[in-house]
Amino acid sequence: MKLYISLLVLWLSAFANAQVTPEDILFTVDGDPIKAEEFIRVYNKNLDLVKDESQKDIDGYLDLFVNYQLKVKEAKRLELDQDATYIREFSSYRDQLVKNYLSDSKVTEALMKEAYDRMGYDVKGSHILIRLDENETDTLKVYQELLKLRDRVIKEGFENVKREVHDGKTVFAEDLGYFSAFKMVYEFENAAYNTTVGDVSMPFRTRFGYHIVKVEDKRRSLGEVTVAHIMVVPNEEDESFDPEKRIHEIYKKLNQGEAFESLAKQFSDDKSSANNGGVLAPFTGGQISAPEFEKVAFNMNAIGGISEPFKTNYGWHIIKLLDKKGIPPYDEVKFDIENKIQRDSRSSLINSSMVNDLKAKYDIVMNPNAKGYFESIMNSNFFSRSWTLPKNFEKDQILLTIEADTLRYNDFGQRLMSIQNVYVDQKMPFRTVIEKEYKNFEENAILKYHETNLEFENEEFAQILGEYRDGLLLFDLMEKEVWNAAASDTIGLQKYYTKHKDDYFWEDRVDVLIATGAKENDIKTVARLLRRGQSADDISKELNTQNEQKVMFTKGIRPSSDESLPQDGILRTGLSKVYRYNDAYHVVKVNALLPKTNKTFDEAKGKIISDYQNRLEANWLESLNERYEVVIDADVLQKVKSQIQPEID
């Protein structure tokens, strides 16, 4: 028993010793420490993204990580982090990233689910709006007026009231058609979705004024469709090519019974979908940037149905409807919904909730005399934008403290000075102004303090921000030391090309004319006519009619290994045998054989620059290793391997 306990203690001790601690330093670069935990985090984060198995080797990845840190060190030595452009770009990214962390997750989730439920329906409505400044506090008269209009709409109908009251200035009576979540301000959306069909809402307020909304209909949303398409675009190299004529030729072949998928593979110019039979990823209303395409797709109902040819800004299309369903599952769209909420008036609910949480978290103290003091120094000039702070203004008095940060009377005084234009020609007690503006001032101050200190309060935020900070530095450094250096070194590029000229060449190619048809006999006829010396245009006129498209021709230069050419290879000029490919029959007329040949400098320039950049980077890294001393702690490295290895086995 004692032996068992001793072995257990020994095993636990060994296990504990193998675990990396927050204090473990894996290596130093000129004395600057890089912790083992950082290496493990980055390694695990990138593990699934690494396709090269050699980079999954810990020692190999460590070499890459050391090189990365060497570059960061060099960038800071060159003071690239002090560059104005770098600082501006980094600050912009930080501002964007912060937005993802300045929210109450519980409130956000509730709003996301509410929005998702509403996305399942479209509301058709009409409304009457009486414009009112959003700072106006005397609203009883407008509210009562809308109550009377509501009664009239219920009794007389919306159109009759609309004709009488709409003036397009202070009163708006409008038909809104169908709309869904995020199409209206949140308060309006709430009223519309919470009012039953045929009813008129009670008056409600938005930033535009007071409204009533009549809900005329609710229907399920258009949902999601999956389609395949064939697209034909103009040919920049052949001005005689007519895309409209080509799309109608393809449509004729579809009506003759040829497979949509096969024709998409053969003739669609959308190369990203052609090899898959033209199939596109599913999309919802508003997701496609071509309204004509979306309209045709959603108006189709028969699965497997095919549209007539139609034109968009991208070219000519034919659509086949593959699937049609309701809105996608919540998990598929929740991130898109969250982004919309951040830009929507709903975000104020999230901010208010978060401020309440932060108030409980931070030590916040307000000067109890502050509001009374500011009321005492205001006068009627405030409502005509001519108010100024008095000469004896107590600007250095403490207004508010948030942890160690102090805000003074001058901070709030400047806010009041800048906000006067919002209250022009209004009449309200000074206390109302102070209460509203102080509330906004305090909320903004608390959120600003949280934002400023987020890097010290949130580990995930700090890690992401640190990665971007170094990544942006490295981009600027690589641009300076490698990319621009290679692109501008014309002499060096020429020398590199001369030395490695045999690495840049054209594979064997062929200049061909390809005839394609659904029936073998038609292509045999084409082959016979080609042997007689007839042109593609003459053959098309002879075989194709208004009602039947028997053959289509494609010409150009292709690699000899192109899979659309005969599998037994192109060995000579002349006519190939008739063969089958992509569910159709083909015959190829080879006009010329273009054998393997070296590329000129201009033809290979892009690849030459890339290869030359790799050479410059390798030489540069050697110099960095000479400039900076890297010391790796072998014991800590062993602990890292012991911790990582079980995770990847």
UniProtKB/TrEMBL annotation:
Pfam family, one: Rotamase
UniProt-listed PROSITE patterns: PPIC_PPIASE_2
GO molecular function, one term: peptidyl-prolyl cis-trans isomerase activity
Domain of life according to the entry: Bacteria
Alphabetical list of InterPro entries matching this protein: PPIase_dom_sf, PPIase_PpiC, PrsA_foldase
Domain PpiC, first and last residues per copy: 120-217, 222-323
Signal peptide: 1-18
Keywords: Isomerase, Rotamase, Signal
UniProt-recorded name of the protein: Peptidylprolyl isomerase
Organism: Gelidibacter maritimus
